[in-house]
Amino acid sequence: MSRKTAIIIGSGIGGLALGVRLQSLGFNTTIFEKLDSPGGRAYVRRVDGFTFDMGPTVITVPHLIEELFSLERDAAALAEPDFPEQILDPNNRIKTGVSGGPNTSKYVKIIPILPFYRIYFDDGTHFDYDGDPDNTRRQIEAIAPEDLPGYERFHAAAKGIFDRGFIDLGHTYFGDALSMLKIAPDLVKLDAIRPLFSFVKRYFKSPKLQQVFSFETLLIGGNPLKVPAIYAMLHFIEKTWGIHFAMGGTGALVSGLAHKFQELGGVIHYNSEVNHIDVVGNSFSRRVAKGVTLADGAYYAADLVASNGDYANTYMKLIDAKYRLINQDARVKFAKQSMSIMVIYFGFKAEGLNLNLRHHCIILGPRYEGLMRDIFDAKILSQDFCQYLHIPTLTDPSLAPPGHHAAYTLIPVPNNASGLDWSKLGEPLADKALTFLEERGYIPELRARLAHKSFITPDYFETTLNSYLGNGFGVEPVLTQSAFFRPHNRSEDIANLYLVGANTQPGGGTPAVMMSAKITAREIAKDFDVSDAIVNGVGGIRVTAR
Ligand SMILES: Cc1cc2nc3c(=O)[nH]c(=O)nc-3n(C[C@H](O)[C@H](O)[C@H](O)COP(=O)(O)OP(=O)(O)OC[C@H]3O[C@@H](n4cnc5c(N)ncnc54)[C@H](O)[C@@H]3O)c2cc1C
């Protein structure tokens, strides 16, 4: 029996994870990637002896990674529990030894990072968040003792949301409105629908603590003032399984996934941009994806096509309008795109420096709510900003030449619906951010010590990563774009067309895109009637067309 063939457009973490899963389901899978190496947002920039992860740096839920590295050819385990007992301590405490796992460690070494984040306030004081309730209580007491009872209640509320929203429903595919309606009462009961910032304000009076317990959504493109409080689960996810770092950088994890995919027989073509998804049928008959055409005109046929690319770009640029009844241009354009970011990559001489920083630093600005409104609503570039400063060489010196540090600082900015001209604004903002780090004493004499500086702006996301309006994180995670209302992993318009990654269910961030790969693989397994034997992981293969 000949195997069914699959094409995946894009080798982001979601595309690679889906590739691994499809190989384990018995498909012959080919990935076409526009860039010259894998990772997408997790692409690696190697320059002047420095290694910079361009995107994700905070690794959570390492069990999801271990699961991917444990898959074998023709032996998918889609029906096993998503969160087996050995990784879910009944008290939801971090378990030692979950960082790597035996299969992960064959490809990449993953270690825990403490504290998770050092959060600096504009007055120079800081909060070290490490998930340890006692440490957290001690620091709350120092800032606002009156908020201690609020913390206990917040903790309990966030746990309720984590248990239902992540453990029970994290891998659920909301393919129809009914599936959404079924969970709506639970979400209301858990108060998970109200905006996160308003939820957090119910428990904390101190503006500093309100920021500490809401900023995390910015790392996946969500406005704390607008994302639903279901995202309070992030706090609990971090607390439960910790925050981790891949030695060698996130790029080492990406390379590991690409190797795993190839070891399972998958094929990746780099420098291969897909220009067109070829569809047959018409608005009156069943429309079926048949293959893809690359920018150089080469045509590849397959039994199914999955796009790991941007949602808006996939539908509006790759598929002729006549095949799209649901995802028409007007609907796609109506979707809210996430904010964008400016990221400045820099290397500096470490000699004689006594850095009092941590691996992950959040540097908050003088304003929080006002700044969020400027970025997400008014779409203007404010004079003030907040930053996420990443210094991986505090953990892994191999990422810089001897005697140097490698770092990046990330500044949330409006997406390109703003009309801002980044060719003029980029350089001054990069200089302003580095000057700020020097003058506020975070990195003394930074400009004199500088050995490398480069940056990306929203234009990089728009032109290099093909992301509509230069969005940094896909469609914005707001209530009206969550679960059933988020772009569907199984196309509503075209049979045998699937989506995977940050734009789809359940959402953005590296754990979520790995979960989206599992959700998409499950839909494919159903559609192609992959036998129960393989879904249950006991071997054997029978793949028939739907
Ligand atoms: C700066 C930054 C920091 C972040 N930090 C974190 C973090 O610390 N922790 C965390 O969990 N998440 C973080 N995120 C979010 C996380 O990186 C993303 O959610 C995730 O990596 C997205 O993966 P993806 O699979 O959806 O695809 P992407 O990474 O978006 O990859 C899509 C791929 O498709 C390719 N492609 C697009 N169109 C085509 C085409 N037509 N033909 C061929 N190829 C195409 C692109 O080149 C790209 O390689 C961060 C994101 C950014 C930008």
- The structure class reads alpha/beta
Kindly provide the name of the CATH class of the largest domain.
Alpha Beta
User: What's the total helix number?
Assistant: 17
- Detail the poorly predicted runs: 536-546
Strand percent estimate: 15-25%
At the fourth level of CATH, the homologous superfamily of the largest domain is: FAD/NAD(P)-binding domain
The CATH topology name of the largest domain reads FAD/NAD(P)-binding domain
Strand order of the largest sheet: 7-6-15-16-17-14-18
The distinct ligands, each listed once, are: flavin-adenine dinucleotide
On the 0 to 100 scale, the average pLDDT is 93
How big is the Rg?
A: 23 Å
The CATH architecture designation of the largest domain is 3-Layer(bba) Sandwich
Number of E strands: 19
Q: Gap between N and C termini, in Å?
A: 16 Å
Describe the largest sheet. 7 strands, mixed
- Count of discrete structural domains: 2
Net shape: globular
Describe this structure in words.
The chain starts with a strand and ends in an 11-residue tail after the last helix. It is globular and about 65 Å long. By secondary structure, the protein is an alpha/beta fold. The chain folds into 2 domains: 270 residues, FAD/NAD(P)-binding domain (3-Layer(bba) Sandwich); 129 residues, no CATH class. The protein is built from 17 helices and 19 strands. A 7-stranded mixed beta sheet has the order 7-6-15-16-17-14-18. α1 packs parallel to α9 and α1 runs parallel beside α16. The C terminus is likely disordered.
Q: How are the SSEs ordered, and which strands pair?
A:
Blueprint: E1 5-9, H1 13-25, E2 28-32, E3 44-47, E4 50-53, H2 62-69, E5 110-112, E6 117-120, E7 126-129, H3 133-143, H4 148-168, H5 177-189, H6 196-201, H7 207-212, H8 233-241, E8 244-246, H9 250-263, E9 267-269, E10 274-280, E11 288-294, E12 299-301, E13 304-307, H10 311-318, H11 329-334, E14 340-349, E15 360-363, H12 369-378, E16 387-390, E17 404-413, H13 422-439, H14 446-449, E18 450-456, H15 458-464, E19 497-499, H16 510-527, H17 532-535
Parallel strand pairs: 1-2, 1-13, 2-9, 6-15, 13-19
Antiparallel strand pairs: 3-4, 5-8, 6-7, 10-11, 11-12, 14-17, 14-18, 15-16, 16-17
The structure holds flavin-adenine dinucleotide (FAD).
